Amino acid sequence: MSSSLHQLRLASCRECSTSYIHVLRPSNRCHLVVGRRDFQHQRLHRAKVAGNDAAAVYPPSDEGAGSLGPSTRDHPDPALRESLGRECSGQPAKQPSANISQEGLPKVPWGLGKVFQVMTLWLLAYIIIGHVIVPLILSCLGVDRLELTVRSHAVLHLCLDLSQLIITLSILWSCLREFRPLSLGLFPVRLRGLWPLAVVLCCASFPLVDWLAHQSMGWFPFEPDASWASNLEHSLSVGDWVTNVVYFSVVSLCAPIWEEAIFRGFLLTSLARYMPTPAAVAVSSVVFASCHFRMQTFLPLLVLGVVFSGVFIRTKNLIPPILLHSAWNMYVLVTLVLRPG
């Protein structure tokens, strides 16, 4: 009897322990689920409290009601303002792209002080080379410039333009190298594209510019240095092939490269950052015409400056204005030889 009671107690204990385990396990699962929910609720609550505190210190921006920090619209840096706006609105970050203005000209990273520095150095070099260094060298050599032969005059002009080309490119490189202008798309040179068609179309304006040049000679008859054209015409009419090759090299290679680099590649692009593009074209063309220091050529060169600037802006390439400049110079040489009288 006692053994039966003992077995019955053991059986009841096993049943109780089994039922306790079955009851305990679900309760443990429920406890774990409830614990996770409490933890997530507490974390969301802490984030909400932190967000309210931050919103009290930093008013929400215009990018959204939940964004924190100062208003991105008032940030002084446009690039950082756009980046902050994208971060606050949850948009993906914008990939960096070329710094191109609305008119297609690349935006320069330098200020007007740098523009003044480069143009001043270039103008001083232009004047010093032609009016100080060359006469000084000829004087030291005992050479009278008026007694030079036709071929010697041509070689002298070639040396002047070569030195001006080297000095101009050196000034641009030394003053702008810290900005790495080529990596920013400045001074663009591209072989591909439809720019040859633009060059051909712009060449159709040469007769009009030539007519304007003839009218300017009548409007400004008293030119201090009016003998240059007759001297050049005489030099070409001699028929010396060395003289002709030298002059054509000067007007078709040297002068167009350094003039377009300084006036279109640098000056026009720099001015376009601080004024509308038409105003930048006008100002750079006036400077281009004025730097030739002759009243008879001011108006035609002003028109040519506008044409060269227009084709540079449309093609985003320095090769078309260089070729146009070269074609115009050769057009002048040919008309000087072929024009009667």
From TrEMBL:
GO terms for biological process: CAAX-box protein maturation. Residues 72-85 have a biased composition (Basic and acidic residues). Residues 92-101 have a biased composition (Polar residues). Residues 243-330 form the CAAX prenyl protease 2/Lysostaphin resistance protein A-like domain. GO terms for molecular function: endopeptidase activity. The chain crosses the membrane at residues 119-143, 155-173, 193-213, 297-313, 319-338. Keywords: Membrane, Transmembrane, Transmembrane helix. Residues 55-101 are annotated as: Disordered. Pfam families: Rce1-like. PANTHER family: CAAX AMINO TERMINAL PROTEASE (PTHR43592), CAAX AMINO TERMINAL PROTEASE FAMILY PROTEIN (PTHR43592:SF24). This is CAAX prenyl protease 2/Lysostaphin resistance protein A-like domain-containing protein. It comes from Volvox carteri f. nagariensis.
